[in-house]
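hiii, so i know i said id send this last week but things got crazy w the move. better late than never?? heres the sequnce for the chain we talked about at the cafe, plus the structure i predicted for it. fair warning i was half asleep when i ran it
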Amino acid sequence: MKRSADFSTSSSKKKDNQRKNDVMDINEMGEFEDPYGDDNESDEEIVETNDDEGMEIDEDEEETKHETYMPGKEMGENEVLVVDNTAYEMLHTMNVEWPCLSFDFLGDNLGVNRTTFPMTAYLVAGSQAEEQKNNQLYILKMSQMNKTKYDDDFEDDNSDDGLDDDPILEYKAIPHQGGINRVRVMPHPESHIVATWSETGKVNIFDITSAVKSFDVPGVMVNPKNIKPMYTVNAHGRAEGFALDWSKAETGRLLSGDINKHIYLTNPTDSSFKTDIQPFTGHQSSVEDIQWAPKEKNVFASCSADQTIKIWDARAGKRNQLNVKAHDTDVNVIHWNQTTEFLMASGADDGIFKIWDLRQNFGSNNTAPVASFKWHTAPITSIEFHPQDSSMLAVSGADNQLTLWDLSVERDVEEEKNINSDVQDIPPQLMFIHQGQEDIKEIHWHKQLTGVIGSTASDGFNIFKTINSQ
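okay and structure toks below
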C-alpha cells in the first residue's frame, strides 16, 4: 500500500556557547492522506492591501514571547510547545494501525553514509494490538523524506535543498500471532531475515526478502498474508521475553532470553535453524536484553532484572564467565559499542545509564563504570551507540525524552562560569533533547543514513536528523 503522509510537529530549542540542547514536542502525530486529495481542495483566497490602508494596529499588543523549554519545567496555563524546525535537518512522523514496542531498520542497496535529500529508509516493526489475533509484522518503506529545516521560513529560497512533495509511506502487513515484544533483523548483505519475540512465548523467524523487493522491483507481487515463519523457537515454553539479538560475526546465530531467566541459542543449519536443548543459566531474574560482541563469534553479554550484566562464552558451557552488579535497580538495556569493542552502555529502571570499559577489571569486586549519568527521571527504555562514531550515544526513557550524548566532551570549569544559570545543571556531554512522543520504547541509529535516528512510541514513529548529528 502506498500513501502520502501529512506531518505536524511542535517543539522548542536551546543554544548556549556553541552547545545545543534542543527540545521538541508533537501535538498531533502524522496521519495518512490521499495523495490526490490536494486536487479537490480550494486554494485559500489572498487579499492584498496597499500601505496598510484600512488596517488598525494595536500598539499595546505584545509580541508572542518564545522561551526555551527544559524537561521538568512547569508550563503556564496558556503556554504550548512548538517545534523549532531549525533544530532539525529533517523531522518526520508516521503512524500505523497499532502501536509498536520494537522496530529495526532494514539494510538497502542505495549506498552507505548517505547525506543527500530526499532520503529513503526501510524498516520492520511489530504491533501491540488490542486482540492477540490482530497483531501484525509491518514492513515499511519511507521515501521522499525531504529537509524540514526551513519549514518555519515561508519566504526561504532554499527550496532547492529539498522538494516540497509530501513524504511517501508504503507498507505491507504480515499476520502475527501475539503481540511482538522485540524485532531484530539478521545482518546479511542480500536477504532480509527477521526474528520476532512474541508474547505467546515463541520466537518466530521470517524471511521477508520478497516482500521488501516488491516495493522496488517491477513485477514482484507478494501477498503478505502468505508469509509464514520459516522457523519457530519453542524452547521457552509459555514464557515470553524481550532479549533478542543476531550475531554480527557469524551469520544466522540467534540468542533469545526470557522472563524465566533462560537464554537459548539458535544456530543455522543447511536448510533451516536448530535451537539448543539446554539454555544458558545464571541470572536470578528476567533476562531483559542480550548483545553479541561485535566481532566475536561466541562471546555475548546479557542484562537482567537481577541488576547484573553477565559476559558469556558459548564455547565454555552454559554458565557465564564474568558477572557485575551493574545497577541498583533492574538493568533494562545494554549496547555493545560497534567500533570500540571494549565499551558497553547500560540503562536501568532508576533512569541512570552507565558506560563500562571491559578492560578495567570488569567482573572483579571493584568493577566501576567509567561514566554514570542521571539525567532521565524514569526508566531507561533503549540505548544505542552511533554505528560509526564511538563517542556518540542515543538514550530514551519513560520520561518521554530521547537524548543524544557526546561522551568525548569533557567538563570545562572555566567555560561553565560564562554559561547561563538556566543551563548550568545540564551535563556538558548532553547535545540534544528530543521530545514529543509518549512512552518511547525503542530507538535506533540508521546504519546507512548518516546521523539519522528512528524511534517508536505508543503514539507512533519519529525519524529525524538533528543539525548537530554526524
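btw The radius of gyration is 24 Å. thought thatd interest u
miss u guys!!
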